[in-house]
């Protein structure tokens, strides 16, 4: 491993010139940029137009940025330069990321990766892969993120020491999230060892920080206290309030688990102070407020208890918005309904102790009745969807989307369609790693053409098309072969080529309108083989 910088080549120089020109334009006023844009339009200088649109993008309000981004991308595409087009997709992806629209950000980063892959800039390629991996990790697709991180790891090991260490750290965190705690420890220890060998200890406190959290997952609370207490002074010196907040949360929770609540409280309160000052919150920090509510409830302090109930309700709204893709995975001791009930109870105890019992009973009865009605309606809807699915025959072909025009040679289109029919007949879509790039290989074309053909003649985006074929195949297996009805979800997912059980169950529910459990149970009950 060495500490050399990424290689310089023609594409790198073009890209750096592109960025440098952007920063030069950034010093100009908005009016100057508009004048510059007009001159570029007159000359049909699409490269300069793209860069100027990018500069204008950062000089306008948030609502108008995406319009500039679309113009920037359109001009970049006209340059036919993969480096410029890839950079434009990166910029647009960053806009979506800042808006916390992470799925659209991921789409744009993947497009950026497709174009940057056509350049010779290996460093930029892997930097983009690393960004994609980070977003996949955020969205909870940890297995996919780990695979990408490991690709980056092999490259960065020879090219960039700090990037290599950062990637080790990211892999460890991802393994912790999927419960592979020993692998998390392995990468944390490797990171510390490698940093020492390279005389680069910048990330050492973060590996120890990660291992402290990992030990909490293993319920080794004394180890948590030891490791997080060790790194908190360094994180304080670095003024890394985010890492500090996470460290204090896990340290407080570890003390609580060790029944040392008075030691836990200062840590838990520091997390709340960081939230008040920086509005920083993550799903892992939510439990902090549950413990604060419990503490003040035990201390018979209804004012403080009510304060943290209100704070947790506010935090839940933030988490539902900012972490909506992970919100269903967050274990909530206090869910929203329970919080609202407790809030009402505390408010009434502060005002009066009279009639609270009847109010709670009425509320509970109303909730139960509402849930009962909602359950019956839901079951009726599911039954209708099940009956519809059972009577539905597999689609032989999708309707052509006549709204899409293809600027392609008709003979080429027919060849691709023939290959598409072979792809479907041979059930190649069941391969586990099937995606747009591999699909394009089967169709003997490039990903761009493959995507357009699928959209026009199968009326779906490529991944949606592949996913639907997998689910339709699953339904047919369950309808016709009894053994598959006794498969675990993991086994079913592997049978039809899904990368994870979570992706399989999510796709099944999205396409059929019901969870696989409901479908299989009704098959066994009403349609035995």
Helices and strands, with pairings:
Blueprint: H1 10-26, H2 30-43, H3 46-57, H4 62-78, H5 82-98, H6 102-116, H7 122-139, H8 142-159, H9 161-177, H10 181-197, H11 204-217, H12 221-238, H13 241-257, H14 261-278, H15 286-298, H16 302-322, H17 336-351, H18 356-391, H19 410-425, H20 436-442, H21 447-457, H22 462-480, H23 489-495, H24 501-512, H25 516-526
Helix pairs in contact: 1-3, 2-3, 3-4, 4-5, 5-6, 6-7, 7-8, 8-9, 9-10, 9-11, 10-11, 11-12, 11-13, 12-13, 13-14, 14-15, 15-16, 16-17, 20-21, 23-24
Structural class: mainly alpha
State which percent range the strand residues make up: under 5%
Biggest sheet details? none
Tally of separate helices: 25
- β-strand number: 0
Which segments are poorly predicted (pLDDT under 50) over 5 or more consecutive residues? 2-26, 327-331
CATH topology term of the domain at 1-139: Serine Threonine Protein Phosphatase 5, Tetratricopeptide repeat
Question: What percent of the residues sit in helical stretches (DSSP H or I)?
Answer: over 70%
Mean pLDDT over the residues: 85
Shape by Cα distribution: globular
- End-to-end separation in angstroms reads 60 Å
CATH class label of the domain at 1-139: Mainly Alpha
The helix/strand series, from N terminus to C terminus, equals HHHHHHHHHHHHHHHHHHHHHHHHH
Please give the radius of gyration in angstroms: 27 Å
CATH architectural category of the domain at 1-139 = Alpha Horseshoe
